[in-house]
Write a structure and sequence with these properties.
Layout: E1 2-3, E2 10-11, H1 27-54, H2 57-61, E3 82-86, H3 89-95, H4 99-117, E4 122-130, E5 135-144, E6 149-158, E7 164-175, H5 184-187, H6 194-204, H7 207-213, E8 222-225, E9 229-236, E10 239-247
Antiparallel strand pairs: 1-2, 3-4, 4-5, 5-6, 6-7, 7-10, 8-9, 9-10
Length: 249
């Protein structure tokens, strides 16, 4: 004996309609067929479409695996996605077979920075490996010159060198006037572009304008802007701070 799907009472297997509530028992077959179709889509068709669209992305996305990833040449792909994300060189070296060679390049760059500045720095890293074997590096270094002056160096580049740029940011606090801005000796250790030094002279030429506006300096500050370099003065409590930014590209 079977049971009616609606009233749950017993019916004969040959009954076309439930003798108790009149339910059309022929719908049971249709219902079960749709369930089978949904299960087929869930377990076979959808995963097949996933592989078709994303290609061999699963090979790199297996983050739970302890397998070491061997990099191939950077490949062309219509679907670009991050396969791995690292915040330290040690994890990067363990997971990526050729990781140590990239880390050696980073350490060489860091040694050059230390030699130029004559001091240590704090550092942070963002390294992303993509499903086409491209790698994007973001290196951040902070030099604390004194309690009022910091220099930040940000280097961003890719394995293929399609992106390769540096940004230097010098921040000075505790300024009473724009004449207090002083960075020539510090910044010359890192940057040889003379426009970086000239921008301060251009800003000082606007001293009268600054004095008229300094009580009302808002979020965007008071500054001088050129192609690769900017120098902006912001309100900082009762005093001011200057932010010098220079990008190589």
């Amino acid at each position: 004996m079977n049971k009616c799907p609606r009233c749950k009472k017993e019916v004969n297997k040959n009954d076309k309609f439930c003798p108790h509530c009149g339910y059309d028992l022929k719908q049971r077959g249709v219902r079960f067929k749709w369930i089978n179709v949904i299960l087929l889509l869930s377990f076979f068709v959808i995963p097949a479409l996933y592989v078709f669209v994303l290609g061999d992305i699963d090979y790199l996305y297996n983050n739970q695996s302890n397998d070491v990833v061997v990099l191939k040449d950077v490949q062309e792909t219509n679907t670009l996605a991050v396969a791995y994300h690292f915040n330290d060189l040690e994890s990067f070296n363990k997971k990526i077979k050729q990781g140590q060679s990239f880390s050696d390049e980073i350490h060489l760059y860091e040694n050059e920075l230390k030699e130029k500045m004559g001091m240590d720095f704090t550092s942070s890293y963002i390294i992303q490996v993509y499903n086409n074997y491209e790698i994007a590096f973001e290196l951040n270094y902070t030099f604390k010159i004194n309690n009022k002056t910091n220099i930040l160096v940000n280097k961003i580049y890719t394995r293929s060198k399609s992106i390769d740029q540096e940004e230097y940011i010098l921040e000075q606090k505790g300024l009473k006037d724009i004449k207090d801005i002083e960075f020539d000796e510090i910044i010359q250790k890192l940057i040889t572009d003379k426009n970086v030094l000239n921008i301060k002279d251009d800003l000082l030429k606007r001293e009268d304008e600054f004095n008229k506006k300094k009580k009302y300096i808002g979020h965007f500050g008071f500054g001088e802007y050129q192609d690769k370099v900017s120098l902006v003065v912001y309100k900082d409590g009762k005093q001011f701070k200057s932010v010098l930014k220079y990008k190589t590209k």
